[in-house]
Design a protein that fits this description.
2 domains; about 80 residues; 3 helices; mainly alpha; about 40% helix; single chain; two-stranded antiparallel sheet
């Protein structure tokens, strides 16, 4: 683990963007500094294909949010 210097801590506290962006001056490679909890959430994200059940649940939630409850029989089924 790399421990930040006081100067780096001050720079992070005054960062203009959130999360802070960092650059390696030797390679110009850019990094984003995230709290460990946020990184864990991103690492746990499943970007795999959605199942039919997951798509159906999302469709139902969307219809409800749009106020289209009960309109399912009138919707085209594009599956």
């Amino acid at each position: 683990m790399i421990e930040l210097t006081e100067q780096q801590v001050c720079a992070l506290e005054q960062a203009q963007t959130s999360p802070p962006r960092l650059v390696n001056p030797k390679t110009q490679q850019r990094f984003v500094l995230l709290p460990e909890e946020q990184y864990a959430q991103l690492a746990a994200y499943d970007a795999g294909a959605w199942s039919d059940e997951e798509r159906d649940l999302l469709r139902a939630e969307t219809l409800e949010a749009l106020g289209w409850e009960g309109m399912e029989p009138y919707q085209d089924d594009h599956r």
